[in-house]
Design brief:
single chain, 422 residues, mainly alpha, two-stranded antiparallel sheet, 2 strands, disordered C terminus
Length: 422
């Protein structure tokens, strides 16, 4: 048996090893129907998660006008969301490794649904309160994002787990794209951007009911026969994660992905709107149609990227070893970077080329999503996987998309000032 090749290990027996030194025995899990139902429910909630997260970006111009915001102040909406999201992730990671994940998810989903709804009623003179509300939304979403992947890891092993994670992470690009599309369309149809924030809360309540009725919280490590492995202290978990080189490298790489994705997702529709205004000398062009187009591109590029990443991982891991996974992720980022650069350069003069370059840049960026999560789950033992997910969320967002919308704006401003002096 090749220890570096997960696909050579049977899902019914043999051994799965975490890189922090522990080993467990694989056994068969519950019925496939129940497992697939669980993945479908988790996908649905993850879809709502990302629709809710990017609805704000789809109506950003309307929000700027309503609250009379500068670009820097508007960028704080995303920053505050990510701050709340990342700071509470370690707490939910700790709880998710020790207590009922089903209960934690239900409480978190209800909380983020309520705070999203409250955010639609904040008057123009209380923008600071809206920032607090967006941070609270991030807190609610942290409870779900740290826990859901670990449930999938406890239902499936090996290639099947990789495929189910790929399906789960399809929700990121699809939900993000739908967030832009629904946000801009609802705002245009109702004449008020606030209604864009009043759609997902009802589906959030529905998802809680579905989870209560149909989701079973499996034993931690159950699919791998590791249900007997006890949790350690939180400090021991963190110490083991910090010396796990595979986990640390995976987290640092994903931080780069988060930085790029955060700036792109928040500012791209407005950037293209301004580029079109310059090209056509028409300042009446608004963000609505552009957000819709960007959403469509994000959906299809994401589906293709996540699917291609998962497929490539399965094929190359079978033929070689698990080293194929980081190579696929690195290749995606290396190709994405020049495509994004040339899309920026082409935006003012060749709009159609800009859309095409953004599509392929997002496709290669999305190669990472499912693979990064899969790496965490097969290099970390079951009793500390929620903590691992939480630590990765904290690190990647603190150094990634919490700051990138603001940093990218300030960098553009300084470059403009310098260009004007030359």
């Amino acid at each position: 048996m090749d220890a570096n090749n997960p696909s050579s290990v049977s899902s019914e027996s043999l051994t799965s090893r975490g890189t922090d030194g522990d080993a467990t025995i694989l056994v068969s899990g519950p019925s496939r129907r129940r497992e697939y139902t669980a993945v479908a429910l988790l996908f649905f909630v993850n879809l709502l998660n990302y629709i809710d997260r990017y609805t704000i970006a789809g109506v950003l111009s309307d929000i700027e006008k309503y609250y009379d915001l500068s670009k820097s102040e508007a960028g704080l909406l995303q920053t505050m969301f990510i701050v709340g999201y990342m700071l509470l992730a370690p707490l939910f990671g700790y709880l998710g490794d020790r207590y009922s994940r089903k209960l934690l998810m239900c409480v978190g989903i209800l909380f983020w649904s309520l705070t999203t709804l409250l955010g639609s009623f904040i008057p123009p003179h209380l923008f600071s309160l809206l920032l607090v509300i967006r941070a609270a939304v991030g807190v609610g979403e942290a409870s779900y994002s740290t826990i859901a992947p670990t449930i999938i890891s406890d239902l499936f092993t090996d290639a099947m787990r990789s495929r189910m994670l790929g399906l789960f992470y399809f929700a990121i690009p699809v939900g993000s794209g739908l967030g832009y599309m629904l946000g801009s369309s609802i705002a245009q149809g109702t004449g008020e951007w606030q209604w864009a924030l009043r759609v997902t809360p009802g589906f959030g309540v529905l998802s809680v009911l579905l989870i209560i009725l149909f989701l079973r919280d499996p034993p931690r490590g159950g699919a791998e026969g590791g249900a007997h492995v006890a949790s350690t202290t939180w400090l021991m978990d963190i110490r083991c994660l910090l010396v796990n080189k595979s986990f640390v490298g995976d987290t640092l790489g994903f931080t780069c992905v988060a930085f790029v994705a955060g700036a792109l997702s928040f500012w791209a529709p407005q950037f293209i709107m301004y580029a079109l205004r310059l090209k056509q000398n028409d300042h009446t062009i608004d963000q609505t149609s552009i957000s819709f187009t960007f959403g469509v591109i994000t959906c299809f590029a994401g589906i293709a990227g996540v699917g291609l990443g998962s497929f490539s991982s399965g094929k190359l891991r079978t033929a070689t070893s698990v080293k194929a996974d980081p190579l696929i992720c690195g290749f995606g980022m290396l190709v994405c970077a020049p495509l994004l650069y040339f899309s920026i350069m082409a935006s003012r003069y060749y709009p159609d080329l800009t859309w095409a370059l953004i599509f392929f840049a997002e496709l290669f960026l999305c190669l990472n999503w499912a693979i990064v999560a899969d790496i965490v789950l097969y290099v970390v033992i079951p009793p500390r996987r929620s903590s691992a997910e939480a630590f990765q969320i904290l690190a990647s967002h603190a150094l990634g998309d919490a700051a990138s919308p603001y940093v990218s704006l300030e960098h553009t401003r300084m470059a403009t000032i310098l260009a004007g002096r030359l």
